[in-house]
Amino acid sequence: MTTTTDRPVQEASQTPPAPGGSPRLSDRGLAVAFISPALLLLLGMSVFPLLWALYLSFTDYSATRDVPANFIGLRNYTDILTSDQVRIRALTTLIYVVGAVTLQTVLGFAIAYLISRRTKGRGALTTLFLVPMMLSPVVVGLFWKFMLDAQFGVINSMLGSLGFGQVEWLTRQRTALFSLIVVDTWQWTPFIMLIALAGLTAVPNYLYEAASIDRASEWFRFRHITLPMVWPLLLIAVMFRAIEAFRLFDLVYILTSGGPGVSTETLSFHVYKVAFLGFNTGTASAYGILMVLVVIVLAQFYLRYLNKLKEG
Amino acid sequence: MRYAQRVRRAPGRPLRLATAAVVMAAALAACGGGDGDGGGGGGGTEAAGPKAPATIPELTDDPINLSFVWFEWPPAQALEDFANAEYTKERPNVTIEVNTVPNANWHDAMFTQFAARQTDFDIAILDSQHIGEAVTNGNILDITDFVNENIDVDAYDPYLLAAYGQYPQAETGQRDENASLYGLPLLGDTWTMIYRKDLIGDEPPETWDEMISTAQKCQDENPGVSGLAFHQANGSDAAAVTYNTVNGVYGGNLWDSEEKKIEGVINDEAGQKAMDVLVNQMKPLTAKGSGNWFIDETNAAVAQGKACIAFQWIAAAGGLLDPAQSTLGKTQDEILDKLGFATLPTQDSDVVPLGGMGMHISAYASEEDQAEALNFMKWFEQEDIQKKWAAAGGVPARTDAIQSPEFLEAGPFNQVYADSVARMRDMWNVPEYAKLIDIENTNVNAALNGAKDPEQALNDIAAEQQKVLDSAGGGGL
Amino acid sequence: MAISIDEAVPAPAQAAEDAPAGRRRGGTARRVIEVVLLVALAVAMLFPVLWMLETSIKENRDVYAVPAKFFNFDFTTIHYKDVFVGRDGGRSDLSGSFLNSVIVAGASTILATVLGVPAAWAYSRFTLKAKKDQLFFILSTRFMPPVVVVIPIFLMYRELGLIDSKLGLVLIYAAFNVPFTIWMMKGFVDEVPAEYEDAAMLDGYTRLQAFRKFTLPLLVPGIAATAVFALIFSWNEFVFAIFLTSSQEVRTAPPAIAGLIGGTTVDWGLVAASAVVFALPVLVFAFLVRKHLVAGVTLGAVRR
């Protein structure tokens, strides 16, 4: 595992000044010159828009109407936080995030574990498993919409030859959300698998050998050697996926467009409707800010844990 | 004012583009420029938009591109081909381009550009219900004076002229001579009933109830074939138009436009009856998993021989006659032996949905392009051109063209359109249209797919739509 | 160090060989179960991809066949032709979108690399005020929901005239890729000992020259890997593309492919073929950077 401590930096600063100049000053200049363009881009494209959204979130501004924005205080926020509609979407999003992330963690870890126990063909096997993760959500959404079609989709066709009736994958409340979870799981199980595999690799062999001498049970080895070594990495993978799943938009847009009714509308999808159907830019901005807050909290956990991992 | 602003802003653009690479400073400056810097014309009050001149300004002889925006479907290609073949006979320096976007993205694509106050199209092909939103925001030109000067208004069924151009909306089915006009008809449309002559006989059912029992009988007699196929999706205006149609047939109303009342109107007794018929009598006759069907899926069901009776927009039904996409026959005649097209059955009332779209000139197009657009519209609305458009697969709006043999013989469903004109009813074309339609779409879709009790769904539609109308213009979710 | 897939291998198998014979029989049964499970999972994961490939070479009437035809269908390449050749025999709209995707993804990747690599080097080498906070701030911008970001970006672009322009897409994609580039590249820079540069500076080179002449060449493989990941992100991106662009001249492939459904008829053969064509470059690229996948998919945060 790489240590990304600041050791090289300290060494660099201890270096005696090279002849012919004051490197300390030019170092500083160089650092500024090298870092500021990237930071400026981020300030311009990420921070500034966010601040703008923050400002708009306190107004009744609409991007299409030719009326100046009026300051309305916290009304947008109270509207959103007290809205039943938003509560429904939040619940949908929660079920989706928990369902999808749980499923892909279990499956991903299982596959990684199975692969790690094979001696031949591991490389090829892993590469094959990774294919879904590399595809665009658009392509994945279309693939699955096609396969899940109740009338001529291949899934129902196969179920049919096994003697099952047609399942309405995308048009029933429960199945539609389930389908969304399945498709996301299909695409992102490889992600968990990849990271779990990296964790499994890091378990030193001598630990297993020692356990073997002690005649430790298979379960004991898994519980006390494998899992503790893999757990930190797995947790990072899970948090990463949770953040991504929380932001989900494309798959819903293509697979169900929120239906039936609004039963698969995630928060992201709802924000889109507020912003681009109603053009209630102020409300949508407040909505977005609240979502960003949730993501920031999640991301903080992610980053803090990462930090601990790096230092540990 | 609008022109002046454009002139002022135009030279700034390349400069800004360059600055954009450094972004931060430019972005801040632009912000200082203010959010209210709309540009657009007019004061932003009700029904105010920049006005087009009464007479067509002088046209350029330089090569010029006249671009439309529409959604992806066969009439878009037909329009591009037709206009490039015919209009260029009069104006050889003009190239017509019909840009298309996915249907689901149609409203968003046009209105995000309007919101950007910069459009890559000169003529927006707006749905009739979009007019309110576009007019209120000053996105399209007021062409009242131009129409009075250049268009023979008596040649039209007044309601058609009103439906695709007038704002405030014509509720009564009559054109309001005092209201302003913002567009002219491009393509007329309504629903047709498509029925399998080989399965239910040559005579189409005449009442809605009869239609349902016929479909039931047909489904029972023909395993693997569903009784009905119609639009149920929650995107665009799919499920909403379906409910509105049944609502009309059973004598219901969508709203009381004078009082701006929806609550208690759409969900009155007739409205509830319509919802009950749709969910409890019609939906059970559709194919499993058809709850997200729209135009293409309904067409596929008919072409694959999987539906006894289907409802479809006339302008989208052309593909059904294509043997390459159909399992019903190897030639068009063979297909027509099996497929019949009829006007919608009636019940307590004889209302049919108004579809189709008008041409509306973007307020953000260049002056040159706007002049060319006006000239195109004048040209397009002439009698002989309308007949040619009919022969090329379009649906005209002029009465003389609708009644002409060119139109009536161009497609098996054109007579249906001609017979339906007097029965058409539109939705609300208020600025809040997009929100209203989304509420109705999602609730009807939920009712159709068992995600909501139908009566509850209808009451929710009424309550939520009323809330949107009441808070007109301001915020909300 | 970054790991390659082939290295991702613990070897508990040897330990099992020491087990008594009785347990070994159980071990064989277990091994069989494991292989069967693995094969089943692999089939489940790969089936959709294979089915799409198959659909892309089927005649349309076989595409809709119920029950589905797995083997005895009529072969055609017409869908692939339709991807590139338009109705009138010229270039298709879809191929124009592919070209736009190449331009936008390429340019944004170059921009992100040019901005990100020097910054990564500086963050790795210099002591800076609140460096950790800066780095975490940079990474956190990457976590914002695109649907949320697109609202103020839309307003900003409206003022700048960047709506519906390739430059607009390039800038926003670059902004999303810079955090990733910095984090990923910082890891690579950390692996190059700073002593190289110090030695060069003792020889009279300035620090900038030392970076260019000695460190940069060593970073090239890392830069390539990082750039490929940025390229994949830009290539697949959908949300910004659909809300910030509208015209055929600018539209990238993801919204164009999504637009293939929702007309009056759906040509699933064409959808399948364009999906395959669109996915191919990504798969090739992903294969090229397989050694750095773990770092790549965690925004460079996890590297072992």
From TrEMBL, chain A:
Keywords: Membrane, Transmembrane, Transmembrane helix, Transport
Gene3D superfamilies (alphabetical): MetI-like (1.10.3720.10)
Annotated region (Disordered), positions in chain: 1-24
Bilayer disposition of the protein: Multi-pass membrane protein
Domain of life the protein comes from: Bacteria
Transmembrane segments annotated in the record for this chain: 30-55, 94-115, 127-147, 188-208, 229-249, 284-303
CDD domains cross-referenced by the UniProt entry: TM_PBP2
Main location group: membrane
PROSITE patterns reported in the protein's UniProt record: ABC_TM1
Ranges where the ABC transmembrane type-1 domain occurs: 90-302
Biased segments, Polar residues type: 1-15
Cell compartment(s), UniProt: Cell membrane; Membrane
Family: Belongs to the binding-protein-dependent transport system permease family.
Name the UniProt record assigns to this protein: Sugar ABC transporter permease
UniProt lineage: Bacteria, Bacillati, Actinomycetota, Actinomycetes, Propionibacteriales
UniProtKB/TrEMBL annotation, chain C:
Residue spans of biased composition, Low complexity class: 1-19
Keyword presence, Transmembrane: yes
Residue ranges of the TM segments: 32-53, 98-123, 135-155, 167-185, 214-235, 268-289
Superkingdom of the organism of origin: Bacteria
Name of a matching Pfam family: BPD_transp_1
Topological type in the membrane: Multi-pass membrane protein
InterPro entries: BP-dep_ABC_trans_perm, MetI-like, MetI-like_sf
Protein family per UniProt: Belongs to the binding-protein-dependent transport system permease family.
PANTHER family: ABC TRANSPORTER PERMEASE PROTEIN (PTHR32243:SF52), MALTOSE TRANSPORT SYSTEM PERMEASE-RELATED (PTHR32243)
Protein's name in the database: Carbohydrate ABC transporter permease
Protein's organism: Nocardioides potassii
